[in-house]
Amino acid sequence: MNPADTLKPKSEISSSEREESSLNLPNSITLLRILLIPVFVWLYLEPTPERALWAGLVFAAAAFTDFLDGYLARRSGQITNLGKLLDPVADKLLVASGLILLVQVHQVAVWLAIVMIARELIVTGARAVAAKEGFIVPADSLGKFKVIGQIGGILCLIFQGAWLEAQAFLSSAGIILLYMALVLSLASGWRYLVLIFKKLSPAYW
Q1: What is the structure's pLDDT at 205?
Q2: At what angle do helices 49-76 and 25-44 cross, to 10 degrees?
Q3: Over the chain (205 residues), what is each successive 10-residue block's mean pLDDT?
């Protein structure tokens, strides 16, 4: 092996090497989460008890990969720009698909889904502007608890169609979790926006 090949300037790294480093295990798991979304949608389009059960299991598996890919990326030091882009996109697609389908089967109010999805779009856009200006906005604890509430609420409402004996409990628990997630969503969204605009337009604050 030529010693000169062991260290390469960034400009000399080939596109194939960059692609290989980006398509690591954590990013592959994130891609799997995105691929599971259409499977979940197909299963829950006609939510019979059996299909609702399988849809809930697929949704739960997809949600688990959100924890798994981040854990593996941090543990192995494989945090990449591709992962930073794909992970929040996958999360938002998963939650939005769950909310929209629950609206379709009259389990979630339309306004609740609209507010939650609109919040995600607004914050994502603001963070993209901040990133373009060289300011990275890290996720805060409120945002993390918000995601837990959203995932938990959606799962309860999906599974209530599968476990009829616990339908009333799961329905109530799902709605409560989603309303808690809504409060956290608005609070964390406001914090993100204030933080971003303070950095981008300090003269107005």
Answers
A1: 53
A2: 170
A3: 43 44 76 93 92 95 85 74 74 93 94 95 84 73 87 96 89 96 93 84 58
Phi and psi at residue 139, to the nearest 5°? -70, 140
Dihedral sign computed on CA atoms, order 14, 20, 26, 121:
positive
CA distance 6 to 1: 8
From the list 38, 32, 137, the residue with the least C-alpha distance to 84 is 137
Which top CATH class is 18-200? mainly alpha
CA distance 58 to 42: 11
Is residue 154 within 8 Å of 178, Cβ to Cβ?
Answer: yes
How far are the Cα atoms of 144, 146, 153, 191, 198 from residue 186, in angstroms, in the given order?
13, 9, 16, 9, 18
Q: Which residues of 71-92 are buried (b: 16+ CB within 10 A; e: fewer)?
A: ebbeeeebebebbeebbbebbb
